[in-house]
Structure formats: C-alpha cells, structure tokens
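Form 7-S
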Amino acid sequence: MKQENTSYDQLSTQCQKVKDSTGFLRVLSSEQKNLGLKEIAKQLLVSQDEILQANKIDLEQAHSKQLTESQLARLRLDQDRLRSMAHDVSTLADLPDPIGETIEEKILSNGLNVRRVRVPLGVVGVIYESRPNVTVDIASLCLKSSNGVLMRGGSEALNSNRALVRIIHKAVESCGITKQFLQFIDSTERNIIKEIINMDSYLDLIIPRGGSDLIHFVKEHSSIPAITGGIGVCHTYIDKDADVDKAVAIAHNAKISNPSVCNALDTLLIHTDVSDVILPKIAQSLVEAGVELRCDPKSLAILCSQNLLCKPAQDSDWGNEFLSLIASIRVVDSLEEALWHISHYGSGHSEAIVTENQNSKQQFLNEVDAAAVFANTSTRFTDGSALGLGSEVAISTSKLHARGPMGMRELTSYKWIIQGDGQIRT
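Output:
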C-alpha cells in the first residue's frame, strides 16, 4: 500500500529517473563506460580534500554517538583508502565488458541459430550501512554492467556518501553519461527502507549490506528478489599436518589485517596433535596485536600454562561474527570434528584449512559448504578486488543467482536470441 507522504513521492521520482536511465545505459559503448570509470578514479584523487572533510564530520558525529571502534573503522576514510578505491575503479575499467557477451551458441538441426547473450539486470537497489567506499564500488560496478542503481546508505556516513555521489555525478556527466543512473536517497527515516524494498515496479534486485537485523528485515519484507548474505562467521582450521610458519602467518593475517570486515577470522580450530606446539605461537601473535582470546577448556589449559592472556569461551562465542579484535579458539580431535563445527556454526561465507596433507586438504575443500573455501591461505581473500573482479557489490551466501563476491558479471542476466530463415514449428 502506498504511503502518501513526501518521502514516498521523492522516492518514486528517484526510482522513475533511474529506471528511465536504463535505456541509455543499454546502448552505452564499452569505451564510454570505461572513460566514465577512469574519470571517477581521477576525481576521487583530485577531490580527496572534499571527501575527507565530509568524512571528518561523519566521524565526529559518530564519536558523539559512541559508535564502537569496529564501526568507526568501517566508516573511516583516509588518503590510502581513497587511493585504493581509485585503483579498484581503474582496474574495473580495464576488465572486459560483460554486456553483449555470448555465453553459448549453437545451430539446431532445423537451422535455427540460438544464442544466449549477457544483458544487464536493469535497476539494482542497494541498502547499506557504515562503509562509504561501498558507494563507489557499487556505482562503478553498475556503470560497467550497464545497470541503474538506487542507493540508501547509513545515516552515520551521510556526509561522506553525499560527497562521493556528487563527485561520481560530476565525473560521469563530463564523459557524456547521464548522472540519473545513480540515485542516492538522502532520507535517514528508517521507514524508507520498507518503501524501497517494495518498489517492485522499478527495481529488479535488492542487495542489503549490513548487520543481521537489516538482512533479516529485507529477507522477510521485500517484494523484490533479494540477495542476502555477507554475515561472515569465518573459521580457520589448523590440521595436524600443518606447516607451523604458514599456520601462524595465515591465522594472524585472517584476524589482524582488518578485523572489522566479514571475511576476518572469528574462530580458530586446531588439531589436538599440534595444539601444544602451534597454538601458543598463533596465540602469542594474536595477543601481541591486541586480540582477546576466548578459549575452550583444552586451549585454555594450553595457553594459561604459557602465561598468555585468555578467557573461557561461552556458548555464544561459537558462531559469532565478532567484527573486532576478538577470536574464539577450540581444540578438535580430528578433521571430521572440525568439519562438524564449521557445519554447525558457520554462516556459509569463508572457511580455511592449513595443511600439507593432500587428502585432508581435498576432503575439506570438497565437504565444506561455503561461498569460498581456502587451503593454505587467508580468508581475507574473499573480496572482489582480491579475486580479480575489480570490486564487489556484496558477498552473497545465497545459492541462487550469485554466490561469494558479486562483481559485474553477477549483476547481469541473459536473454535468448533466436534467428531463423523462415522456419515454423510444426
């Protein structure tokens, strides 16, 4: 049921604008799109003072609202992060255009030429929290894949997002591309989310990026197909045949390189045969980096004997996405027990094994049901940029349409093109 209010009227207008832009987007050449992306990358660097000043306002307001350190980390922008964002956009410009790609082609016995060709989805609606870099990632991926996009960011990043949208609009218009393809919703009213996810006359897909409350709300109330996921309860299992140096480095990187993201390590599982030798080394590395360790009885006994700071794990520490400098640790008696734990407590996001045993490695890779499964490397590689996609709109733990990091190809559908020479069906 339509709500008769100003926010709904404004939302409808924005939805219509972005839908109207899709006809223009469908006929954009690869060269035009790439030119627009290169200009976005350039303007991110040229306009960094404007962006960082807006981000500073958001950070000051966030401090006054007593946001957690992990929330602040997701919100914060700096020169290095802007350079990284610009690099990802430039990388995306250099990748092959997926639109118009022939997925398969065949000639039937009756002479019909049948092709399946990649096409844009249409209009993507994205509701996200905290991370202003998401604004650039999604706008760039939608432009490359010829999709319109309606965005609603979190109120904590409003000033940063406004600045980024202004810069993107300026960049694409200078290249002859309509800025209408990107519509950003300024409203911070919470009820606007329910209105967005029921705009099925305009939007073809909804992608929520944020906490479990947002994702579950969209899943329950959306009348538009939604790709949900991104909640990452990530495990790294240290097998009895693990290399010590690899185990320490991989666990450290998975937890420390960016603890506030969904592909960071939450739970370390370690085989009992190597727990006395490897676990203290990993724990020492993590504790020195400021990680709070929450341990099962076996790991607690080992680490306390080494005078390493740790505390007993509670039931709630298993299956918990910490998004901070906290990790839970459990000693297991076998690979099978590790697989059971992951199956029972994992979220289907990213799971890793460290082992030199080929049979154990293959069993883990075959049996773990997750969007990304790793052997002898860090779960932090579950990322569109790191996996060569340029960037991502989300990391999906769904199994329909897309799974794992969603790049530009995951923002496409396909259509059948059938050409004949007078054939009729009898």
